[in-house]
Every structure is written in C-alpha cells, then in structure tokens.
Amino acid sequence: MRVNCLADLKRLPIGTKLRLVECLMGPVPEEKQGRILAKVQSNAVAFLTPKDNYQGHLSWLHLPPAKQFVATSDGFTVLEDTGEVAARYVFDD
C-alpha cells in the first residue's frame, strides 16, 4: 500500500493496519505500535490502539497542513511546525 499525498490518507479503507514507529516522545516500543484505521473524517483519522494498552480506544490523528505531511516508501510522516517528526507511521503488511 502507498500514500502519495494527504488526500490518499483519507482514501485508505477502514481496517488498514499501520504501525506507529515514532512520535514526539521518541521511538514507540514494538508491542505498542499496532494501529488499525477505524474512522476517517475530513479533518482527522482515528486508529484503534492495541487492546492491552487502552482497551481498544480510538487514537485521533488530526490532519496537518499539506506541507507538514511527508509520504515515504513504506508509510507517511507528520511533521511539527519546527520540522521535527510528530508521528511516523508505516504500513503493516
């Protein structure tokens, strides 16, 4: 699966599996990386988190301006205003 732009992220099918590998706090432990796309809105997407972490609660990613979205070969990265990585997701095949 490949995302080329922010609009492609909104077109991903519900149930798409991704891994959150990095966030503002640094690398994410492997047992907490799993995410399943659960809901898509015009301004945000929601992921189901691993059940052992938050009892299957929704984790929202509010969509950034296009200049803060970077498509990669295996997923996508969301940047802060400063250019730091806010979140990096990769597709879980």
Could you explain the architecture of this structure?
The protein has 93 residues and is mainly beta. It has one domain (6-91). Helices cover 10% and strands 44% of the residues. The chain has helices at 6-10, 51-54, and strands at 17-23, 26-27, 34-40, 44-48, 58-62, 69-71, 75-79, 85-91. The N and C termini lie close together (8 Å).
Structural category: mainly beta
Number of strands: 8
Termini gap: 8 Å
Order of helices and strands: HEEEEHEEEE
Seen as an oligomer or otherwise, the chain set is: single chain
Q: Fraction of residues in helices?
A: under 10%
Kindly estimate the percentage of residues that lie in beta strands according to DSSP: 35-45%
User: Which ranges are low-confidence, i.e. pLDDT below 50, for 5 or more consecutive residues?
Assistant: none
Radius of gyration (Å): 12 Å
Number of domains: 1
Count the helices. How many? 2
Mean pLDDT: 88
